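Hi everyone,

Forwarding the result from last night's run.
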Amino acid sequence: MFKPVMLLEDELNLVMRKQSKYIYARYKHPKTGVWEFKGTRKLSIKEASAFALKWYYGYMEQVKQGLPTTTRTMNKIIDMYLERIEEAYRHGDITKSNYDVKRRVTAKWIRPHFGNKLLHTLNRGELMEFADWRRNYFRNQPEGATIDYMRKNGTIGHRPIQPSEREARVDMVEERAILNSLFRIAANKGWIKERDIPRVTFRDDVVIKGRTESKVKKDVFFTPEE
C-alpha cells in the first residue's frame, strides 16, 4: 500500500490515485488554498519526487510573476457552468424556462464562439468583436435566412428571421450574464485574476423609439461587477 510522501510541508506531497498506476503530485493552490493534483507519469518515488519538485518550483515562479499557470480552454469552464445551472434547476433555484434559456444561449452563441479559446488569451478586444457581431447579427442576415431555436424536447429547430427582428435591437442580456458567470467560475478557481477579467462596452446604434440619439445611453455588454 502506497503511503503519501511529503515533499514540502503543507504545500506538496506525493500520492496514488485509484484510477492510475502512476504517482501524482498533490499541491495546495496558492490562490484558493484548495488541494489539487498534477500527474507525474512516474512509477518510482525518486523520479516522481524530482519531477514534482521541479514542476512545483516552476509553477510557483509563474504565480509570482503573474503569468498564466494553465492552458484551460473555455469549453472546460462552460461544462462546469452547465453542471452548476443543472444543479440549481434540480434544487429549484432557477425555473425550467430560465434553465432552458441558459442552455440554449450557451449552445447557440457562447460555446461556438468561445469554447476552443484559451482562458488566458481572451481580452477586451475579442469580447468587443463578439459584442459587435451579436449586435448586428439579425440585421446582417440575407432575405430568407433562418434562426436556430431549441424545442421543448431539446432538439434544435429552424425558423425564418422575421423583418421585425432584423430591425430590432438584439437583447444580449443573457449572453452577458453567462460570460459573467464563466469568468466568475474561473476567478473563484484561481485560474484568472480579478484584474485580468476582460471588460467591453459599446454604444448600441439602434435608437429606441421615442428617444433622440443623444439620450441613448452607452450599453455595457459585460463587466465583472454586474
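Strands lie at 5-8, 12-16, 23-28, 35-42, 146-150, 156-160, 200-202, 219-222.

Cheers,
N.
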